[in-house]
Amino acid sequence: MLLEKIESLLNEVSSLSAKNTDEVEQLRLKYLSKKGEINALMSDFRDIAAEQKKTIGVKINELKQTATEKINSLREQLTETESQSDDIDLTRTAYPIKLGTRHPLSIVKNEIIDIFQRMGFVLADGPEIDDDKHVFTMLNFAADHPARDMQDTFFIEQSDPNDVTKNILLRSHTSGDQSHFMEKHEPPFRILCPGRVYRNEAISARAHCFFHQVEGLYVDKNVNFTDLKQVLLTFAREMFGPDTKIRLRPSYFPFTEPSAEMDISCHICGGKGCGFCKHTGWVEILGCGMVDPNVLEACGIDSKVYSGYAFGMGVERITNLKYRVSDLRMFSENDTRFLKEFESAN
């Protein structure tokens, strides 16, 4: 009976076929696995007479070898067939994949960072979702300052009605990154804080509810306004050309004193006056000033020992000046026709 079963399995194995490698694996499990047909013969083999064991043992080994060779042969054939039927033809010319370019804002942001890094500034970043304490309070904003109104800033959560410093908001400037850094580090330090900021403004050609800033901070002993002016002059000439001139106009910011707005000579008309600079010969690009002693003290820095300067600029503003983009909305619309214009600037 056992010999007849072995002969039947030999005939069955010899005529095996499969359509794919998954079916081959099923055949292997059926005949060669621990719970397969051939392994099941061994339980019957133990019960046969001693004089038959040699003959039947040889036939079982023949069956196992035949099944192994047949299944391996099927697997090799199907693997080769499946690889030849692959849709990818390696001899074909490469598909015409269009490569992208850097976004104009990234191009300009990286250029700004590169200029200041060569002057010793290191990058520092902070959270886009922050608290009132770091965005406003530590930066000397008055309790009734307009920036603390819902009309100017996107507030997310009022954690404690009795303590405005714990309100959660989308940062309206990257100056909050500076307060985070100052409360954790001892001077001297020279940092640059790039990032996206948010303000509750109507979207138009000249304004958006989000934009990008790069702010710088230098705190050390004996830092003065002359140091600030020289750094900004160097930046302007690196960014807009060696003949660029600057002027500083008195202004007001809660976190700096004295404060100034910086203009550069119009690089389109050379300062002679044109429609782009409104015939003044000057274009405003950033705000700056000496760090207010109140800010240093709020961040745990002794204002009697240390002083510092800070500046901040909008990346969109600088990009507009370099490439004369007329509509801020174009930076976030992802129109490939617009983005392709910056391939040579990449």
TrEMBL record:
Its cofactor is Mg(2+). Mg(2+) binds at E257. Residues 108-341 form the Aminoacyl-transfer RNA synthetases class-II family profile domain. Keywords: Aminoacyl-tRNA synthetase, ATP-binding, Cytoplasm, Ligase, Magnesium, Metal-binding, Nucleotide-binding, Protein biosynthesis. It is an enzyme of class 6 (ligase). SUPFAM superfamilies: Class II aaRS and biotin synthetases (SSF55681), tRNA-binding arm (SSF46589). One of its GO terms (molecular function) is ligase activity. Tetramer of two alpha and two beta subunits. This is Phenylalanine--tRNA ligase alpha subunit.
